Every structure is written in structure tokens, then in C-alpha cells.
């Protein structure tokens, strides 16, 4: 059984779960009670990194909305979750924290960009400062023997080209579905 201790930093067991998980989930919400809670799956290889024991980051690629960025700009609250699909280690890791969006072209983005793989369409880097991290049992998580990475997003981003991506982000990523400011690019 996993040690369900609570931490404000990553320990070795948490780092191992992150390294072995092919997918993670990102949840954010606006302050307004009528606003929509957002939950997004992530998982392309080389789009996530551990900066140090107290900070993690992921490369935010162009997508259909800007909910995470909008919510973080409004209030900074974020939760990330990883699950083990291994039958011998049924664990779940949740990281609660505050996130900051570093948009493409910013100094912070450029300083961090080299920590990630070569993906077209990167619109930002989300950096999360960990306020609480905990492991819990994942007895209800299914066992999975294999995952394979999709190439669909990278292919779509490549087909769009830089001008097409800029136009797409202008139409779809400037605000959230609740009207909060999103990406400025």
C-alpha cells in the first residue's frame, strides 16, 4: 500500500509514477460559480518536465480552447493527476498548486522551451508551483498493458503551418468559453 502522506513537494515515489504514466489530467476552474470547470488530458511525450521538487511544467500546444490558460490568468488554481495502470502498483498522484502561463514569445517561455521536445504550435508553457501533492490508492483504475502515442495533433499542427496556427489561435484561443481572457497570440 502506498504512503498517503501529504507533501508540498515531489518525492521519489511521485517522480516514478509521473515517469511511468503515459497520460495526465489538468483541471482548472474560473471563480464564477456559473463558470465551467475544465478537465484536459495531456500526454504527448516530451511535453512535461519536473523543474525541481516544488515546480513542474508542461508545454501547452495549440488546441480547441483556452480554458486552462484563462482560468490560470484569472485565479491561478490548478490540479494535475496521474494514475498507474500497473496491476502491481495501483496509485494515483494529485498535485494541487498555482499555475502561471508563459506565452510563446515571452522571455520565460524562451528560457524554458529547450526543456521540451520539438512540437509545432506551442502557444505557452504552464508552470505549476506545488502547494500540496499526495498519493492515494488507485484500486478503481483499470489495468492497461499498453498505450501508444497518437501522432494526430503533431500532424494537424504541421499541416496548419505558422500562419494557419496564428489564425486558428486568434479565432479559438483568445478567450475561454465563459469569456475570460485567454492567449494573446
- Please report the distance between the alpha carbons of the first and last residues: 46 Å
Number of strands: 8
H and E string: EHEEEEHEEHEH
Name of the CATH class: Mainly Beta
Can you count the helices? 4
The CATH architecture can be named as: Roll
Into how many domains do the coordinates divide?
A: 1
| CATH fold group | Pnp Oxidase, Chain A
Rough shape?
Answer: globular
| Proportion in β-strands | 25-35%
Structural class: alpha+beta
Overall average residue pLDDT: 93
Major sheet details: 8 strands, antiparallel
Helix content: 10-25%
Folded structure, characterized:
The chain has 185 residues and is of the alpha+beta class. The protein has one domain: Electron Transport, Fmn-binding Protein, Chain A (Pnp Oxidase, Chain A, Roll). 24% of the residues lie in helices and 32% in strands. The chain has 4 helices and 8 strands, in the order βαββββαββαβα. The protein has helices at residues 12-20, 67-75, 107-112, 152-172; strands spanning 6-7, 24-28, 38-42, 48-52, 55-61, 77-83, 91-103, 122-137. Strands 1, 2, 3, 4, 5, 6, 7 and 8 form an 8-stranded antiparallel sheet that branches. A hairpin with a 7-residue loop joins β6 and β7 (91-103). The protein is globular. 29% of the residues are buried.
Structure in a nutshell:
With 185 residues, the chain is of the alpha+beta class. The chain is built from 4 helices and 8 strands, in the order βαββββαββαβα. It has one domain: Electron Transport, Fmn-binding Protein, Chain A (Pnp Oxidase, Chain A).
Question: Topology, please?
Answer:
Layout: E1 6-7, H1 12-20, E2 24-28, E3 38-42, E4 48-52, E5 55-61, H2 67-75, E6 77-83, E7 91-103, H3 107-112, E8 122-137, H4 152-172
Antiparallel strand pairs: 1-8, 2-3, 2-6, 4-5, 5-8, 6-7, 7-8
Amino acid at each position: 500500500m502506498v504512503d498517503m502522506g501529504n507533501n508540498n513537494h515531489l518525492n521519489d515515489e511521485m517522480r516514478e509514477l509521473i515517469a511511468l504514466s503515459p497520460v495526465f489530467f489538468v483541471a482548472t476552474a474560473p471563480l464564477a460559480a456559473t463558470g465551467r470547470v475544465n478537465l484536459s488530458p495531456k500526454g504527448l511525450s516530451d511535453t512535461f518536465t519536473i523543474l525541481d521538487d516544488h515546480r513542474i511544467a508542461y508545454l501547452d500546444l495549440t488546441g480547441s480552447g483556452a480554458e486552462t490558460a484563462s482560468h490560470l490568468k484569472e485565479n491561478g488554481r490548478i490540479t494535475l493527476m496521474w494514475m498507474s495502470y500497473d496491476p502491481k502498483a495501483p496509485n494515483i498522484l494529485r498535485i494541487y498548486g498555482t499555475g502561471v502561463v508563459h506565452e510563446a514569445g515571452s522571455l520565460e517561455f524562451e528560457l524554458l522551451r529547450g526543456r521540451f521536445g520539438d512540437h509545432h504550435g506551442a502557444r505557452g508553457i504552464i508552470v505549476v508551483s506545488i502547494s500540496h501533492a499526495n498519493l492515494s490508492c488507485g484500486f478503481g483504475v483499470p489495468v492497461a498493458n499498453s498505450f501508444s502515442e497518437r501522432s494526430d495533433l503533431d500532424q494537424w499542427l504541421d499541416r496548419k503551418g505558422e500562419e494557419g496556427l496564428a489564425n486558428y489561435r486568434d479565432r479559438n484561443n483568445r478567450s475561454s468559453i465563459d469569456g475570460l481572457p485567454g492567449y494573446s497570440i
